[in-house]
Amino acid sequence: LFVCGNGGMIALCGATSGYIASIDLRYLWMYQKRIQGSHGGSADDFRNYLEIKKQAGIKDVVSKVYPWDKLPLAHQELSKGAVLGKAVVRIVPEDYIKENIFL
């Protein structure tokens, strides 16, 4: 909520860490922010998408992965158009990901 600009929107897709949240509504009200749920389809839809993408030879382009402490730099580079493809901000340390088999 805090990284979203005034008048901006946060899209939620999934609730794997839980579905109950506590937020300070003043930040939505005072800064006219929105929270929007987003659903992309079923698990079968996603598997079909991945198969079609694989057959077509489509590969995702990840331009750069930023650690959380470089979030301001990520925003600067995105606003300057210095990123081709996707920019990823890692919200957990890389060693945690490797230890917990997220990679």
Question: Percent range for helical residues?
Answer: 25-40%
Determine the mean pLDDT: 83
Number of helices: 4
- Strand order of the main beta sheet, please? 1-2
**Order of helices and strands, N to C?**
EHEHEHEH
How much of the residues is beta strand, in percent?
15-25%
For the terminal residues, how far apart are their CA atoms? 26 Å
Estimated radius of gyration: 17 Å
Unreliable stretches covering 5 or more consecutive residues? none
Described by strand count, sense and barrel closure, the largest sheet is: 2 strands, parallel
Question: Judging from the principal axes of the Cα atoms, what is the shape?
Answer: globular
Structural class determined from secondary elements = alpha/beta
Write down how many β-strands occur, each being a DSSP E stretch of 2 or more residues.
4
